[in-house]
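re the bet — no i am not wrong, look at it urself. input seq straight from the record:
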Amino acid sequence: MTKVFLSKRDLWIFALVWVGMGLAAFGAVVQFRSGAPLLQRSLVLAISIVVVGFVLSLLYSISYTLDDRELLIRCGPFKYRIPLSEIDRVTPSHNPLSSPAASLDRLMIRWYSEKKRILISPDTKQEFMQELENRCEQLARVGDELVRVSAS
């Protein structure tokens, strides 16, 4: 059965992004109203619209889908597929590195012998962890982490 989790959203991250997008839009409008040639003004406005749209699509489209075989992470046009059988460890994190997460209340997922890592922020972390534990026979809960306990 497939289960979809949305990203938890920190208000301050949304405020920061919206302020940045507002400033970009304001700059584009000021540029468009300037005395620059029409082609230059139109190009700046078009690029600003595309950038604002892209950033907002990243922010509002973050989801994590669990099925019987994989975890699919979506963030705008980007997709990451993690085979459930390859997950080695899931630990709570507040790491601020760039990731498909709209909150700093995160989980770090490590897979392929802990060589690969990604940070996510499911809106219901404990439910996500329980679902992952139920679907991954190689993982067991140890404290607030899921860790690999067998070679399966």
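see?? The mean pLDDT is 91. told u. also The chain is about 35% helix and 30% strand. so pay up
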